[in-house]
Amino acid sequence: MKKISQVFNWLSSLKIAIFLLFLIALSCALGTAIPQLENDEFYLSNFNKTPFIGLFNGNTLLFLQINQIYTSIWFLFLLIWLGISLSVCSWRRQLPMIKSALKWVDYKSSRQIAKLSIAQTIQTNDASESLNKLTKKLKDKGWNIKENTRRIAARKGAIGRIGPILIHFGMIVLMIGATYGALNGESLERFLVPGRSIELSDKNEGGKVTIELRNFQIDRDPKGRAEQYRSLINILEPNNSIKEKEISVNYPFRYKGITIYQADWALAAVTIQIDNSPKLQIPIQPIPELGEQIWGTIVPTKNNGEDPILLTMNNELGPVLVYDRNGNKIITLRIGESPQKVGDSFIKVISIIPSSGLLLKHDPGVPFVYTSFAIILLGGCLSIISTNKIWALYEADQSLLYIGGLSNRNLTGLSKELPELIKTI
Question: Which of 335, 327, 318 is nearest to 272 (CA)?
Fold first, then answer.
Protein backbone atom coordinates (compact mmCIF):
# COMPACT_ATOMS: atom_id res chain seq x y z
CA MET A 1 0.00 0.00 0.00
CA LYS A 2 2.86 2.35 0.80
CA LYS A 3 4.38 1.88 -2.66
CA ILE A 4 1.01 2.45 -4.33
CA SER A 5 0.58 5.63 -2.33
CA GLN A 6 4.04 6.79 -3.40
CA VAL A 7 3.18 6.14 -7.05
CA PHE A 8 -0.03 8.16 -6.74
CA ASN A 9 1.86 10.98 -5.01
CA TRP A 10 4.40 10.99 -7.82
CA LEU A 11 1.73 10.95 -10.53
CA SER A 12 -0.16 13.84 -8.94
CA SER A 13 2.99 15.90 -8.44
CA LEU A 14 2.77 19.45 -9.77
CA LYS A 15 6.40 19.20 -10.94
CA ILE A 16 5.57 16.15 -13.08
CA ALA A 17 2.57 17.92 -14.65
CA ILE A 18 4.64 21.02 -15.46
CA PHE A 19 7.41 18.87 -16.91
CA LEU A 20 4.92 17.02 -19.14
CA LEU A 21 3.36 20.31 -20.29
CA PHE A 22 6.85 21.57 -21.14
CA LEU A 23 7.62 18.43 -23.20
CA ILE A 24 4.28 18.66 -25.03
CA ALA A 25 4.81 22.37 -25.79
CA LEU A 26 8.36 21.65 -27.00
CA SER A 27 7.04 18.85 -29.24
CA CYS A 28 4.40 21.15 -30.73
CA ALA A 29 7.07 23.77 -31.43
CA LEU A 30 9.16 21.07 -33.12
CA GLY A 31 6.14 20.06 -35.20
CA THR A 32 5.76 23.66 -36.31
CA ALA A 33 9.43 24.02 -37.26
CA ILE A 34 9.65 20.73 -39.20
CA PRO A 35 7.11 20.03 -41.99
CA GLN A 36 4.80 17.17 -41.10
CA LEU A 37 3.49 14.19 -43.10
CA GLU A 38 5.79 14.64 -46.09
CA ASN A 39 7.16 11.61 -47.93
CA ASP A 40 10.35 10.00 -46.64
CA GLU A 41 12.41 11.30 -49.54
CA PHE A 42 11.64 14.90 -48.50
CA TYR A 43 13.30 14.42 -45.09
CA LEU A 44 16.22 12.42 -46.45
CA SER A 45 17.04 14.98 -49.15
CA ASN A 46 16.54 18.06 -46.97
CA PHE A 47 18.05 16.99 -43.64
CA ASN A 48 20.78 14.46 -44.48
CA LYS A 49 23.03 17.21 -45.86
CA THR A 50 22.02 19.87 -43.32
CA PRO A 51 20.79 18.18 -40.10
CA PHE A 52 18.15 20.00 -38.07
CA ILE A 53 19.95 22.15 -35.43
CA GLY A 54 23.04 20.16 -36.37
CA LEU A 55 21.81 17.00 -34.60
CA PHE A 56 18.94 15.34 -36.44
CA ASN A 57 19.45 14.12 -39.99
CA GLY A 58 16.70 12.70 -42.17
CA ASN A 59 17.11 9.13 -40.94
CA THR A 60 16.97 10.23 -37.30
CA LEU A 61 13.85 12.33 -37.89
CA LEU A 62 12.08 9.36 -39.48
CA PHE A 63 13.23 6.95 -36.74
CA LEU A 64 11.98 9.29 -33.98
CA GLN A 65 8.71 9.87 -35.88
CA ILE A 66 9.33 13.61 -35.92
CA ASN A 67 7.82 13.61 -39.41
CA GLN A 68 4.46 12.75 -37.79
CA ILE A 69 4.76 14.10 -34.27
CA TYR A 70 1.06 14.42 -33.46
CA THR A 71 0.36 10.77 -34.22
CA SER A 72 3.68 9.39 -32.96
CA ILE A 73 3.68 6.80 -30.18
CA TRP A 74 5.78 8.92 -27.83
CA PHE A 75 3.63 12.06 -28.25
CA LEU A 76 0.41 10.13 -27.60
CA PHE A 77 2.14 8.56 -24.58
CA LEU A 78 2.88 12.05 -23.22
CA LEU A 79 -0.77 13.05 -23.65
CA ILE A 80 -2.00 9.90 -21.90
CA TRP A 81 0.53 10.37 -19.09
CA LEU A 82 -0.56 13.98 -18.56
CA GLY A 83 -4.21 12.91 -18.60
CA ILE A 84 -3.52 10.28 -15.91
CA SER A 85 -1.55 12.81 -13.87
CA LEU A 86 -4.38 15.35 -13.98
CA SER A 87 -6.96 12.67 -13.14
CA VAL A 88 -5.00 11.48 -10.11
CA CYS A 89 -4.39 15.07 -9.00
CA SER A 90 -8.11 15.84 -9.24
CA TRP A 91 -9.02 12.70 -7.35
CA ARG A 92 -6.46 13.09 -4.56
CA ARG A 93 -6.37 16.87 -4.16
CA GLN A 94 -9.13 18.78 -5.91
CA LEU A 95 -12.05 16.60 -4.79
CA PRO A 96 -11.04 16.71 -1.10
CA MET A 97 -10.67 20.49 -1.40
CA ILE A 98 -14.20 20.76 -2.81
CA LYS A 99 -15.57 18.56 -0.02
CA SER A 100 -13.75 20.69 2.53
CA ALA A 101 -15.09 23.90 0.99
CA LEU A 102 -18.67 22.61 1.03
CA LYS A 103 -18.45 21.28 4.58
CA TRP A 104 -19.72 23.64 7.26
CA VAL A 105 -17.18 24.40 9.97
CA ASP A 106 -18.79 25.21 13.30
CA TYR A 107 -16.79 27.39 15.69
CA LYS A 108 -18.34 27.10 19.12
CA SER A 109 -15.98 29.26 21.18
CA SER A 110 -14.82 32.85 20.99
CA ARG A 111 -11.18 31.69 21.13
CA GLN A 112 -11.57 29.89 17.81
CA ILE A 113 -12.95 33.01 16.13
CA ALA A 114 -10.26 35.22 17.67
CA LYS A 115 -7.55 33.13 15.96
CA LEU A 116 -8.92 33.82 12.44
CA SER A 117 -7.10 36.10 9.97
CA ILE A 118 -9.80 38.75 10.42
CA ALA A 119 -11.41 38.94 13.85
CA GLN A 120 -13.18 41.60 15.85
CA THR A 121 -15.01 41.79 19.19
CA ILE A 122 -17.98 44.17 19.55
CA GLN A 123 -19.67 45.43 22.71
CA THR A 124 -23.46 45.66 22.14
CA ASN A 125 -26.55 46.39 24.21
CA ASP A 126 -28.31 43.27 22.89
CA ALA A 127 -25.90 40.71 21.44
CA SER A 128 -28.71 38.43 20.31
CA GLU A 129 -30.43 41.20 18.36
CA SER A 130 -27.10 42.24 16.82
CA LEU A 131 -26.52 38.69 15.61
CA ASN A 132 -30.01 38.64 14.07
CA LYS A 133 -29.32 41.91 12.24
CA LEU A 134 -25.99 40.56 10.96
CA THR A 135 -27.70 37.36 9.77
CA LYS A 136 -30.34 39.34 7.88
CA LYS A 137 -27.72 41.61 6.28
CA LEU A 138 -25.63 38.65 5.14
CA LYS A 139 -28.67 36.95 3.63
CA ASP A 140 -29.55 40.15 1.77
CA LYS A 141 -26.04 40.18 0.29
CA GLY A 142 -26.38 36.61 -0.96
CA TRP A 143 -24.44 34.78 1.73
CA ASN A 144 -25.41 31.22 2.67
CA ILE A 145 -26.11 30.97 6.38
CA LYS A 146 -26.08 28.10 8.84
CA GLU A 147 -27.64 29.10 12.13
CA ASN A 148 -27.01 27.48 15.50
CA THR A 149 -27.70 28.46 19.07
CA ARG A 150 -25.94 31.79 19.78
CA ARG A 151 -23.83 31.53 16.64
CA ILE A 152 -23.87 31.48 12.85
CA ALA A 153 -21.56 30.37 10.02
CA ALA A 154 -21.76 32.14 6.64
CA ARG A 155 -20.04 31.54 3.33
CA LYS A 156 -20.09 33.01 -0.13
CA GLY A 157 -18.38 32.02 -3.39
CA ALA A 158 -17.93 28.33 -2.57
CA ILE A 159 -18.66 27.56 -6.24
CA GLY A 160 -15.23 29.02 -7.03
CA ARG A 161 -13.65 25.87 -5.61
CA ILE A 162 -15.09 23.90 -8.54
CA GLY A 163 -13.00 25.95 -11.01
CA PRO A 164 -9.66 24.08 -10.71
CA ILE A 165 -11.24 20.64 -11.13
CA LEU A 166 -13.18 21.88 -14.17
CA ILE A 167 -9.90 23.11 -15.68
CA HIS A 168 -8.36 19.68 -15.08
CA PHE A 169 -11.38 17.96 -16.58
CA GLY A 170 -11.35 20.31 -19.59
CA MET A 171 -7.67 19.56 -20.25
CA ILE A 172 -8.37 15.83 -20.10
CA VAL A 173 -11.23 16.22 -22.60
CA LEU A 174 -8.91 18.33 -24.78
CA MET A 175 -6.27 15.60 -24.84
CA ILE A 176 -8.89 12.94 -25.60
CA GLY A 177 -10.18 15.03 -28.50
CA ALA A 178 -6.71 15.78 -29.84
CA THR A 179 -5.71 12.11 -29.67
CA TYR A 180 -8.95 10.90 -31.22
CA GLY A 181 -8.67 13.47 -34.02
CA ALA A 182 -5.02 12.65 -34.69
CA LEU A 183 -5.72 8.92 -34.98
CA ASN A 184 -8.97 9.11 -36.95
CA GLY A 185 -8.74 12.42 -38.81
CA GLU A 186 -8.25 12.76 -42.57
CA SER A 187 -6.91 15.60 -44.69
CA LEU A 188 -6.73 16.23 -48.42
CA GLU A 189 -5.04 19.12 -50.21
CA ARG A 190 -5.74 19.89 -53.85
CA PHE A 191 -4.93 22.74 -56.22
CA LEU A 192 -7.86 23.64 -58.45
CA VAL A 193 -8.33 26.11 -61.26
CA PRO A 194 -11.77 27.70 -61.72
CA GLY A 195 -14.18 25.21 -63.25
CA ARG A 196 -12.47 22.13 -61.76
CA SER A 197 -13.90 20.08 -58.87
CA ILE A 198 -13.22 17.41 -56.24
CA GLU A 199 -15.53 14.49 -55.52
CA LEU A 200 -15.92 13.19 -51.97
CA SER A 201 -17.94 10.28 -50.61
CA ASP A 202 -20.88 11.25 -48.39
CA LYS A 203 -20.97 8.48 -45.78
CA ASN A 204 -24.27 9.71 -44.34
CA GLU A 205 -26.28 9.70 -47.55
CA GLY A 206 -24.31 7.09 -49.48
CA GLY A 207 -23.66 9.36 -52.47
CA LYS A 208 -20.96 11.76 -53.61
CA VAL A 209 -20.41 15.40 -52.75
CA THR A 210 -18.77 17.57 -55.39
CA ILE A 211 -16.78 20.65 -54.41
CA GLU A 212 -16.38 22.91 -57.45
CA LEU A 213 -14.17 26.00 -57.61
CA ARG A 214 -16.11 28.75 -59.38
CA ASN A 215 -13.66 31.61 -58.96
CA PHE A 216 -10.33 32.35 -57.32
CA GLN A 217 -9.06 35.82 -56.52
CA ILE A 218 -5.88 37.17 -54.96
CA ASP A 219 -6.23 40.56 -53.24
CA ARG A 220 -3.08 42.60 -53.55
CA ASP A 221 -1.96 45.95 -52.11
CA PRO A 222 -0.80 48.85 -54.34
CA LYS A 223 2.74 47.42 -54.28
CA GLY A 224 1.54 44.06 -55.58
CA ARG A 225 1.94 42.15 -52.34
CA ALA A 226 -0.66 39.48 -51.61
CA GLU A 227 -3.04 40.38 -48.78
CA GLN A 228 -5.80 37.78 -49.03
CA TYR A 229 -6.82 34.75 -51.10
CA ARG A 230 -10.50 34.12 -51.84
CA SER A 231 -12.17 31.09 -53.35
CA LEU A 232 -15.81 30.97 -54.39
CA ILE A 233 -16.91 27.33 -54.19
CA ASN A 234 -20.07 25.38 -54.96
CA ILE A 235 -21.06 22.34 -52.89
CA LEU A 236 -23.10 19.92 -55.04
CA GLU A 237 -24.90 17.50 -52.71
CA PRO A 238 -26.19 14.02 -53.61
CA ASN A 239 -29.77 15.38 -53.75
CA ASN A 240 -28.61 17.86 -56.46
CA SER A 241 -28.91 20.89 -54.18
CA ILE A 242 -26.15 23.48 -54.46
CA LYS A 243 -24.58 25.57 -51.71
CA GLU A 244 -22.43 28.53 -52.62
CA LYS A 245 -19.77 29.78 -50.20
CA GLU A 246 -16.74 32.08 -50.28
CA ILE A 247 -13.75 31.01 -48.20
CA SER A 248 -10.54 32.87 -47.51
CA VAL A 249 -7.50 32.64 -45.26
CA ASN A 250 -8.69 32.40 -41.62
CA TYR A 251 -12.32 32.06 -42.78
CA PRO A 252 -12.94 28.38 -43.56
CA PHE A 253 -16.25 26.68 -44.33
CA ARG A 254 -17.56 23.76 -42.28
CA TYR A 255 -19.80 21.25 -43.98
CA LYS A 256 -21.01 17.96 -42.45
CA GLY A 257 -17.88 17.41 -40.37
CA ILE A 258 -15.52 18.57 -43.13
CA THR A 259 -13.68 21.89 -42.83
CA ILE A 260 -12.56 23.50 -46.09
CA TYR A 261 -9.62 25.89 -45.69
CA GLN A 262 -8.06 28.37 -48.06
CA ALA A 263 -4.56 27.03 -47.59
CA ASP A 264 -2.37 28.14 -50.48
CA TRP A 265 -2.21 29.30 -54.06
CA ALA A 266 -0.15 28.57 -57.15
CA LEU A 267 0.02 29.27 -60.87
CA ALA A 268 -1.49 26.56 -63.08
CA ALA A 269 -1.13 27.66 -66.69
CA VAL A 270 -0.24 30.48 -69.05
CA THR A 271 -2.29 31.31 -72.14
CA ILE A 272 -0.23 32.55 -75.11
CA GLN A 273 -0.49 32.98 -78.84
CA ILE A 274 2.42 32.31 -81.19
CA ASP A 275 2.14 34.16 -84.50
CA ASN A 276 -1.35 33.36 -85.85
CA SER A 277 -1.86 30.17 -83.85
CA PRO A 278 -4.97 29.53 -81.74
CA LYS A 279 -4.79 30.44 -78.07
CA LEU A 280 -2.55 27.93 -76.34
CA GLN A 281 -3.12 27.18 -72.65
CA ILE A 282 0.12 25.66 -71.46
CA PRO A 283 0.52 24.10 -67.97
CA ILE A 284 3.35 25.53 -65.89
CA GLN A 285 5.33 23.99 -63.04
CA PRO A 286 7.28 25.36 -60.05
CA ILE A 287 10.97 25.90 -60.72
CA PRO A 288 12.61 25.91 -57.25
CA GLU A 289 16.06 26.26 -58.83
CA LEU A 290 15.13 29.83 -59.80
CA GLY A 291 13.70 30.76 -56.41
CA GLU A 292 10.57 30.48 -54.32
CA GLN A 293 7.22 30.95 -56.05
CA ILE A 294 8.67 30.87 -59.56
CA TRP A 295 6.71 28.97 -62.18
CA GLY A 296 7.60 28.29 -65.78
CA THR A 297 7.48 26.12 -68.86
CA ILE A 298 9.52 25.42 -71.98
CA VAL A 299 7.88 26.37 -75.28
CA PRO A 300 9.23 25.60 -78.76
CA THR A 301 9.00 28.53 -81.15
CA LYS A 302 9.07 26.42 -84.32
CA ASN A 303 6.83 23.64 -85.54
CA ASN A 304 9.72 21.18 -85.58
CA GLY A 305 10.36 21.84 -81.86
CA GLU A 306 13.55 23.80 -82.37
CA ASP A 307 14.61 27.02 -80.65
CA PRO A 308 12.84 26.36 -77.33
CA ILE A 309 12.43 29.22 -74.89
CA LEU A 310 11.76 29.27 -71.16
CA LEU A 311 8.83 31.32 -69.87
CA THR A 312 8.87 32.19 -66.14
CA MET A 313 6.53 34.20 -63.91
CA ASN A 314 5.98 34.72 -60.17
CA ASN A 315 2.34 35.85 -59.94
CA GLU A 316 -0.89 35.94 -61.92
CA LEU A 317 -0.34 39.58 -62.93
CA GLY A 318 2.93 38.91 -64.72
CA PRO A 319 5.21 39.87 -66.25
CA VAL A 320 6.49 36.83 -68.13
CA LEU A 321 10.26 36.63 -68.47
CA VAL A 322 11.60 34.88 -71.58
CA TYR A 323 14.98 33.07 -71.63
CA ASP A 324 16.80 31.34 -74.46
CA ARG A 325 18.18 27.82 -74.33
CA ASN A 326 21.43 29.14 -72.81
CA GLY A 327 19.66 30.84 -69.92
CA ASN A 328 20.03 34.35 -71.24
CA LYS A 329 17.10 36.70 -70.78
CA ILE A 330 15.62 37.73 -74.11
CA ILE A 331 12.58 39.89 -73.37
CA THR A 332 9.85 40.69 -70.86
CA LEU A 333 6.25 40.08 -71.94
CA ARG A 334 3.25 41.65 -70.22
CA ILE A 335 -0.32 40.40 -70.17
CA GLY A 336 -2.48 41.91 -72.90
CA GLU A 337 0.33 43.75 -74.68
CA SER A 338 0.87 43.52 -78.43
CA PRO A 339 2.78 40.48 -79.69
CA GLN A 340 6.55 40.77 -79.19
CA LYS A 341 9.17 39.24 -81.42
CA VAL A 342 11.04 36.33 -79.90
CA GLY A 343 13.49 34.79 -82.34
CA ASP A 344 11.61 34.30 -85.60
CA SER A 345 8.15 34.32 -83.97
CA PHE A 346 5.78 36.82 -82.38
CA ILE A 347 4.42 35.86 -78.96
CA LYS A 348 1.53 37.40 -77.06
CA VAL A 349 0.68 36.63 -73.40
CA ILE A 350 -3.09 36.53 -72.97
CA SER A 351 -3.45 35.45 -69.33
CA ILE A 352 -1.85 33.66 -66.41
CA ILE A 353 -4.23 31.28 -64.64
CA PRO A 354 -3.83 30.92 -60.85
CA SER A 355 -4.97 27.87 -58.91
CA SER A 356 -6.44 27.75 -55.43
CA GLY A 357 -4.97 25.46 -52.81
CA LEU A 358 -7.87 23.97 -50.85
CA LEU A 359 -7.27 21.94 -47.70
CA LEU A 360 -10.11 19.60 -46.69
CA LYS A 361 -9.91 18.24 -43.15
CA HIS A 362 -12.17 15.82 -41.35
CA ASP A 363 -11.36 15.87 -37.63
CA PRO A 364 -13.79 13.88 -35.43
CA GLY A 365 -12.02 15.23 -32.36
CA VAL A 366 -13.15 18.82 -32.98
CA PRO A 367 -16.37 18.55 -30.89
CA PHE A 368 -14.28 17.29 -27.96
CA VAL A 369 -11.77 20.12 -28.40
CA TYR A 370 -14.45 22.83 -28.54
CA THR A 371 -16.22 21.31 -25.53
CA SER A 372 -12.94 21.27 -23.62
CA PHE A 373 -12.38 24.96 -24.40
CA ALA A 374 -15.83 25.77 -22.99
CA ILE A 375 -15.14 23.73 -19.84
CA ILE A 376 -11.70 25.30 -19.32
CA LEU A 377 -13.12 28.79 -19.87
CA LEU A 378 -15.91 28.14 -17.37
CA GLY A 379 -13.43 26.69 -14.88
CA GLY A 380 -11.13 29.69 -15.30
CA CYS A 381 -14.00 32.11 -14.68
CA LEU A 382 -15.12 30.20 -11.57
CA SER A 383 -11.55 30.07 -10.26
CA ILE A 384 -11.50 33.87 -10.08
CA ILE A 385 -14.36 33.80 -7.56
CA SER A 386 -13.02 34.00 -4.01
CA THR A 387 -14.50 31.84 -1.28
CA ASN A 388 -15.25 33.94 1.81
CA LYS A 389 -16.35 32.64 5.20
CA ILE A 390 -17.62 34.49 8.26
CA TRP A 391 -18.38 33.23 11.76
CA ALA A 392 -20.20 35.13 14.48
CA LEU A 393 -20.90 34.17 18.10
CA TYR A 394 -22.30 36.10 21.03
CA GLU A 395 -22.01 35.83 24.81
CA ALA A 396 -25.23 37.13 26.38
CA ASP A 397 -23.84 37.60 29.90
CA GLN A 398 -21.14 40.01 28.68
CA SER A 399 -23.11 41.44 25.70
CA LEU A 400 -20.16 40.66 23.41
CA LEU A 401 -20.37 39.69 19.72
CA TYR A 402 -17.36 37.95 18.18
CA ILE A 403 -16.98 38.14 14.40
CA GLY A 404 -14.21 36.64 12.28
CA GLY A 405 -13.61 35.62 8.67
CA LEU A 406 -11.36 33.91 6.13
CA SER A 407 -10.89 34.23 2.37
CA ASN A 408 -8.89 32.03 0.05
CA ARG A 409 -8.20 34.72 -2.56
CA ASN A 410 -9.42 38.12 -1.45
CA LEU A 411 -8.60 38.62 2.21
CA THR A 412 -8.17 42.36 1.66
CA GLY A 413 -11.65 42.65 0.17
CA LEU A 414 -13.17 40.73 3.08
CA SER A 415 -11.34 42.92 5.59
CA LYS A 416 -12.96 45.96 3.97
CA GLU A 417 -16.41 44.34 3.77
CA LEU A 418 -16.52 43.22 7.40
CA PRO A 419 -16.50 46.75 8.92
CA GLU A 420 -19.38 47.69 6.60
CA LEU A 421 -21.36 44.75 7.94
CA ILE A 422 -20.57 45.68 11.53
CA LYS A 423 -21.93 49.21 10.97
CA THR A 424 -25.38 47.77 10.33
CA ILE A 425 -25.53 46.22 13.80
Answer: 335
